[in-house]
Amino acid sequence: MTDRKKFIDIHSHIIFGADDGAESVAEAIELLKLDREEGAYAVFATPHYGIENIYTPEASLVMQKFELLKERAAKEVPEIKLYLGTEWYCAWTLARRIRGREAFRMNDTDYILTEFLEYDQAHEKPEKIFSNLMELKSQGFKPILAHPERYEAMQEDRERLRELTDNGILLQVNAYDLELNGSLKTKSLARWLAKERMISFIGSDMHGTRPGARRPRMKEGLNWLYENTDEEYADAVAFGNVEKLLLGK
User: Fold this and answer.
1) Which residue range is the domain that position 105 belongs to?
2) Residue 146 lies in a domain
3) Which of 111, 141, 162, 211 would suit a FRET pair with 246, their CA atoms being 20 to 30 Å apart?
4) 60-68: which pairs have CB atoms within 8 A and are 24 or more residues apart?
5) 180 within domain boundaries
6) Where are the beta strands (DSSP E) in the chain?
7) How many domains are contained in the chain?
8) Tell me, what CATH number does 152's domain have?
């Protein structure tokens, strides 16, 4: 029987002081311990990057903090392997930013975790989401759209997501949204994506342990995934596809 708690967390904000995630190395270590309790055996650190969403941490500083975090984690959470990436704002000029090494690819592969604005009046139009992702793909990169279930444009027109996946865009859903999210629109879309077998990766999108910050909540969503889709597909989403990504496949 597959261990339903086993997964690779492809989306987290544990580079302390880089964005709105962990504020200290101690908080980052606590997040990793909590994620391990949920079943993680590997975690990608993916700090935000993009002028449009106000986060532009220096790449050299991010790498320095990542190495410090790896050193601490090896002693305090040795069961977890750490990888570095970025949650890039998907601007039309993103390919140039990537080639300029302003931030990091997913473990130095051509896979790029991307996001769009989703706050107050800043929700992005579906046409912009599609065109910017396709422009990135045309430049030779492999885009992964982070938490598509949260975008208002996609909640209103699910078929736009099918259009994206039909054109080679990969999707990462937050496990929390499959079971625990109180927003019916968000949960419903996340579950629809799973049942349509359109999810490639899963993540916690964890930000902190302090009050109000997002902690890793994976078990319930993973259990829902295994109970409502076939085991082969659930394994691929939980860890199999990420293992292929790490090999550049």
Assistant:
1) 7-246
2) yes
3) 162
4) 61/18, 62/15, 62/18, 62/103, 62/104, 63/104, 65/15, 65/16, 65/17, 65/18, 65/25, 66/15, 68/25
5) yes
6) 7-9, 40-45, 48-49, 81-84, 87-89, 111-115, 142-146, 170-174, 201-203
7) 1
8) 3.20.20.140
Q: Are 95 and 50 in contact (CB under 8 A)?
A: no
* Sheet strand arrangement including 201-203: 48-49, 87-89, 111-115, 142-146, 170-174, 201-203
Query: Average pLDDT in the 99-113 region?
Result: 97
Say which DSSP state 124 is in: P
Residue 62 lies in a domain: yes
Average pLDDT of span 170-193: 97
DSSP-derived 3-state class of residue 144: strand
Measure the CA–CA gap between 12 and 80, rounded to whole angstroms: 13
**Is residue 178, in this structure, part of any structural domain at all?**
yes
pLDDT digits over 36-51, tens only? 999 999 999 999 999 9
